[in-house]
Amino acid sequence: SIQFRLTVMNFIQFFVWGSWLISLGAYMFDTLGFSGSQVGSIFATMGIGSLIMPGLTGIVADRWMNAEGVYGICHLAGGSLLLWASTVKDFRTLYSIMLLNAMVYMPTIALNNAVSYRVLEQKGLNVIRTFPPIRVWGTVGFIASMWMVDLAGWNQSALHLYISAAGAVFLGLYAFTLPACEPARDVAKKSLVSALGLDAFVLFRRGQMLVFFIFAMMLG
Question: What does the pLDDT read at residue 187?
């Protein structure tokens, strides 16, 4: 069923992230001998990728390419970068690779949701009722990969990067088998400000939303 296929997509989406997110710190400290500031700066690449790329890839998926195609390309690129990262020992090169990986992975979180919504709507299913049980398997995938790497003792070697890369390549190819999510036909009428979501800042006129945003930023 389409629900099962989307469940697989959500599971692997976060399996890829969980395979390296928790274990990479131990690998950089104990195996590569990086300093605390170096390790911190590599993890900070996710913040940079989150700020820049989701809006840009969203425009591409809205205007020019099928969303599942953009999603698949991002994961194939991410898998290649993680495979490269597994062979690197110096800080500067690894930082550059993980920055590029963040720039192609972080947009896939939103694209994963967008593709799921579009496919469910195409099949005439209630998104509000159908998607949450699908999405929860993403959290299961994250936990499963994290436990697998940690309990097997693979967090001290580059093997966890190989596992993540394999998952990303599989998901990249899998994405191209999903139903087509074509660009929206009316999106050309939107301004660039609207396409980037910048018009949402009007919500900050509400004090509650501003407080929520500040604390969400601190938590992130």
Answer: 53
